[in-house]
Every structure is written in C-alpha cells, then in structure tokens.
Amino acid sequence: MGAICGFGLLLIGRYLQPPSKPLEEPIRVEGWIPIAYTREVTPYGSKEFAYGNIPGVLINKRGEMRAFSLLCSHFGCVINWLPDRKVFTCPCHGGEFNSKGTAICGPPEDPLNQFAIQVREDRIYVKPAWLT
After folding, report:
1. Could you identify which of 21, 88, 115, 122 might form a hypothetical disulfide with 126, taking C-beta atoms 3.0 to 4.6 angstroms apart as the criterion?
2. Model confidence pLDDT, tens digit, residues 90-103
3. Is residue 29 part of a domain?
4. What's the pLDDT band for 36 if we cut at 50, 70, 90?
5. How far apart are CA 88 and CA 22, in angstroms?
C-alpha cells in the first residue's frame, strides 16, 4: 500500500492543480432526511445517497452503520468507496481514507465528514454531523 501511496504522491503536478470541475455551493437541505430502508443495506453492504448535492455513502459493517460525505477533505473532489478494499480513494490527488474515514495516504490530513444516523422503524435517516 505504501508503494501505491508513494506513486500517487509522485504525481505532484496533479497535486497543485484544481479539480477539473468547479465545486458547486451545497444545496441547502436542513434536518434529517431518509436515505434507505434498513433491509436495503445488508451486513458489509453500502448504499450511496445525496444530501442536497452532497454525495454520501452509508456503510454497514456488521450492524455498525457509518455515513460519510463523498467529498474529499483535502480539495472537495468526489471520492470513491471501494468495498472490496474497504477504502475511499480520491481520483484528484491519490488520497486514501480507511473505512472509518481517517486519512491514510496522500495529501489529505483531515478525516472525511460524517453524517449523523438515526434509525426510525425500518428507515435510515441522516444529517450532516459537521454542521451541528
């Protein structure tokens, strides 16, 4: 993994360039929004969602659910969740985050933003924990 991270860091030219698509201002959504039914997210499963125009992913790790923003904490690029490797990867600068959202490689230093989660009856609701 260190070799992969090292290679990503060699792409320093990309590190200095902004993402190819300008970042948009978040669409204002307030409060809890429903994103899934509990039966839709199996153990070790995941489900992508949007909170306004903030992309997110809900991950079920043996009944422990976490929801993360899919915007990189480094530069705001849209990142990818790779369930087979259990990591998030940023295509802009080669950053990686573990399944707890902690930066493990590349330029990001801050963790991913997390959504607060509530389960009511058979529905899963989220709201940005970083805005409360």
Report:
1. 115
2. 999 899 999 999 99
3. no
4. very high
5. 21
DSSP state of 78: B
Please, are residues 40 and 47 in contact by the beta-carbon 8 Å criterion?
yes
Structure token digits, residue 76 = 């705001």
Confirm whether 11 is domain-assigned: yes
> What pTM does this model have?
0.78
State pLDDT tens for residues 40-59.
999 889 999 999 989 999 99
User: Where in the sequence is the domain holding 100, given as residue range(s)?
Assistant: 2-17+34-131
How far apart CA 31 and CA 88 sit, in angstroms, is 26
Residue type, 31: G
In sequence order, what are the residues at sequence separation of 6 or more whose Cβ sits closer than 8 angstroms to the Cβ of residue 65? 41, 58, 59, 117, 119, 124
